[in-house]
Design goal:
- This is Cobalt transport protein.
- By secondary structure, this protein is mainly alpha-helical.
- It has helices spanning about 5-10, 10-15, 20-45, 65-80.
- The two termini are about 25 Å apart.
- The protein has four helices and no strands.
Length: about 80
Amino acid sequence: MMIAFEFAFTAPFQKLRALPSYLEILIVPMALRFIRIAETLSAETRSIDLKRRKSNYLSLRFAAWDVVFCVLLAASIAAGLIL
């Protein structure tokens, strides 16, 4: 279902206030799609024989881009709560 935000709101302030909801509408289905793709790839790659010991753990580090996105996420949530 497609929602036309240009016609639903009359003031730019209303569009800005609805921005967190709009971002949620875009991000949640995308995240679910990514999870489904990751599960499929995981199932397909289990059968590949590796020369080293198999492990399910991956070392991840928090990078500068992660900080930027966390700040943007917090700002969009705060904007949704304040407006």
